[in-house]
Amino acid sequence: MEAISAERLVKIYGNSFHALKSITLSVNSGRVFSLLGRNGAGKTTLLRIMATQLLPTSGSVRVLGYDVVKEATEVRKRIAVVPQESKPMYLLTVKEHVKYYLMMRGLSMAEASERTRKVLDELDLKEYANTLCMKLSGGLKRKVLVAMAIATEADVVFLDEPTTGLDPIARRVVWDVINSVATSGQTIFLTTHNMYEVEAVAEEFALINDGELIIRGHVDEVQRMFPYKMRAEVQATASDPEELSEFGKVIMVGRRLIIYPRNEEDSKRLYEYCATKSLKVSISPVGVEDLFIKEVLAHGVYEER
User: Fold this and answer.
1) Is CATH 3.40.50.1580 the right assignment for the domain spanning 230-286?
2) Dihedral (C-alpha) 65, 41, 8, 297: value to the nearest 10 degrees?
3) What is the pTM of this model?
């Protein structure tokens, strides 16, 4: 069953800025689906339309079979949302924030209290249960919002860059909870610009750039489509891109040079070259970041050498 279905979705701001350009996308129920893209690519616009927070210019979206424009009330009964810019209410404690939110959605005090206890434990927020939200760090405030959405047990949960501001350990705790929620049958739709987040939580993902979907599919399947198996990374300011091109394709990303060796022999030769030049080099298997780089090359974001 499809949890989310978008058909030829367009969003134009003002008279000319096309934030979304004829997006067609479907997400099956019980999945973690990630929308990956750079800042300004259209991720938040798409999520807000799906979550009934923004009207499309044209096209349609259905969530759990309901039209997000014509049947917005029915959609809202069945979803939970963590917007990118949202913040918890400062004068409530962490426990109060989650519990009162659940009660506002119609849960009894007893059920709201039990779900709050459970989610605070799962997200390592138990020690902050009686702490005012105003005293929390930015990362912990973000975890409170994620806790609110997860505790609803809504059929579809929309998370807009949910781990922004979290330290690496806290980020992994949130990832674990997202994965466990999906196994219970809920659908998670999250946006991110973190390639590692996609690999950690998503079964399927789509890459959006300049308002267009340019790649989508199962993470493992799409990775296998990449023509290289390994990647190496060195500092651009200390390296000669022309010399490094002897070992494979070279791409400049900011102050980094990423080299994709053609085979295992080229990887060994590259490592030996860097050792003789006293260059720091890291070699690892390719991942979602490499797919991202490959697909946006055509848009002039990175420089191929």
Assistant:
1) no
2) -130
3) 0.83
